[in-house]
Amino acid sequence: MKKQISQNRIFSILVVAAILFLWSCSKQEKAVDPASIQVSGELKPELTAPPKVPFPVGNRPAKKLIIDMEILEQEGEMVNGVKYIYWTFGGSVPGSFIRTRIGDEVEFTLKNHPDNKLPHNIDLHAVTGPGGGAESSFVAPGHEITFSFKTLNPGLYVYHCATAPVGMHIANGMYGLILVEPEGGLAPVDKEYYIMQGDFYTKGAHGQPGLQPFDMQKAVDENADYVVFNGKVGALNGDNAITAKVGETVRLFVGNGGPNLVSSFHVIGEIFDRVHIEGGSAINENVQTTLIPAGGAAIVEFKVDVPGTFILVDHSIFRAFNKGALGMLKVQGEEDKTIYSGKKQEGIYNPEGRALQSMPGEAPAIPTATSAAERVKLGKQIYSQTCFACHQGEGQGIPGVFPPLANSDYLNADVDRAIDIVLHGKTGEITVNGEKYNSVMTAQTLSDEEVANVLTFIYNNWGNNKTEVTPQMVAKVKK
Question: Cβ(100)–Cβ(57) under 8 Å?
């Protein structure tokens, strides 16, 4: 009897031990690449929002990758109290980081959320093919599209939206990075981070609170209100700073979405041990500042030798201290006074403010038309600078996206309405020549004379009703 009880007790102990062992195993990390999920012999790689990057590819062989990316148009905050409608790949600016290796076959599905207002596509600079994939990926709201490509060249590449007007889509945040690692992967480091610069253009001045619309004229003039890392002022400051420990090696994947400005990327108090020039295979060593063109990238690597807060900047320095291109790398660890013994101060430089000095002088006057023919001539020049990208050279528009101005029943029906749209913009569904359009027409920063000239040009071309619009008519609609 005692022997039977003893055997039962041993059996119970073994069962409990087995359960505990299985529970413990389920809690441990699996000894596989955590950056991806194997699905039916295919790999679904991890996509990450900045400043995080996916797990390195290591020594894995080339595979078929299944990538799903969703486009979201959503409100965010540029800086305290300043709101902005960002257009995003994956819900972040920059878009999700994509990590591949040379020889991968990528099946890419791009999804345009049904609540979005505009069609979009994607041009990946890592792609060898028409438009970098843009010609195959044009997708309307509520739809998805799939295309495929093979990664042929190692390097760090930009991707961005290439739907007309291309500059507007990029300026609203539609860019990101795709890394193609070489065979065998990049050399191991302790920390990796994802940083991307962009310039933004708002109707209001720098720091003016409220929901700020995009300003096309400022963008054309390359007069940025904000130049920032990772989509907003302070994205890498304070509690959002990237971190490392003394003795660790840091790799930064740095891109520049633009759309206009080049980046003079610099870390104050550090020297880059290695720089993959423009994201390619050529290596430069012991670099202080590296130039990153709009639509380009660089990989910078360095070892941190002393503790402190190191400031990341665009060394076109007014952009850093006045427009937002400033971040932090916080390094913890033991001091080494043989390397640096000076006084350290935790924190960020005080911004120098946005008050601007000026020089005397007047801008040249806007040309004034003295006849309808002259108004058409001046209006043609304004059209080519302001309207061409969306409405095209012959006023034909872009099917399903931007309505035609040529032989337009909507345009010819109401001149005052057309003036109002140029002055104040237009959002929502309209019907033009029997077709429905639901996109965004931004308000144009034009004088009364310029509005009159460009509309007179449009009305006197492409089968429209020959109306001459005058500055007095524009002023009346303004009131």
Answer: yes
CA 301 – CA 283 distance, rounded (Å): 11
Give me Rg for the CA atoms of the chain: 28
**What is the C-alpha to C-alpha distance for residues 331 and 234, in angstroms, rounded to an integer?**
18
Contact between 270 and 312 (Cβ < 8 Å): no
What confidence score (pLDDT) does residue 428 get? 82
230/221 Cα distance (integer angstroms): 23
Q: What are the pLDDT digits (tens) for 69-112?
A: 999 999 999 998 999 999 999 999 999 999 999 999 999 999 99
**Residue 291 DSSP class:** E
Q: With 0-12 CB in 10 A as exposed, 13-18 as middle and 19+ as buried, what is 394? A: exposed
Dihedral pair phi/psi, residue 422, rounded to 5°: -65, -40
d(CA 301, CA 383): 46
Report d(CA 274, CA 282) in Å as an integer. Answer: 10
DSSP strands (E only) in 383-434: 426-432
Provide the CB-side half-sphere exposure for 452 (13 A, CA): 24
151-165 residue pLDDT tens: 999 999 999 999 999
Q: How far apart are CA 198 and CA 351, in angstroms?
A: 19
- Inter-CA distances, 208 with 103, 204, 213, 407, Å: 48, 6, 12, 40
The chain-wide mean pLDDT, for the chain, equals 88
What token pair was written down for 249? Answer: 């090696």
Query: pLDDT by residue (tens digit) across 184-220?
Result: 999 999 999 999 999 999 999 999 999 999 999 999 9
Residue type, 339: I
Q: What is the DSSP letter of 405?
A: -
What does each C-alpha distance from 262 to 132, 283, 289 come to in angstroms?
21, 20, 13
Beta bridge mates, 296 = 256
Strands (E), 259-348: 263-268, 272-276, 283-287, 289-292, 296-303, 308-314, 326-332
Asked whether 126 and 159 are in contact (CB, 8 A), the reply is yes
- Give the residue carrying structure tokens 């202080």: 288
Q: What is the mean pLDDT of residues 3-25?
A: 51
238: left (phi over 0), alpha (psi -120 to 50) or beta: left
Are 68 and 106 a contacting pair, CB within 8 Å?
A: no
Average pLDDT in the 54-79 region? 96
CB 152 within 8 A of CB 100: no
87: left (phi over 0), alpha (psi -120 to 50) or beta: beta
Look at residues 254, 196, 194 and name the one whose alpha carbon lies nearest to residue 53: 194
More confident residue, 339 or 25: 339
Q: Which residue do the tokens 């990327």 mark?
A: 265
Closest listed residue to residue 469, CA positions, set 455, 418, 425, 446:
455
Q: For the chain, percent helix, then strand, then coil, each to nearest 5?
A: 25, 35, 45
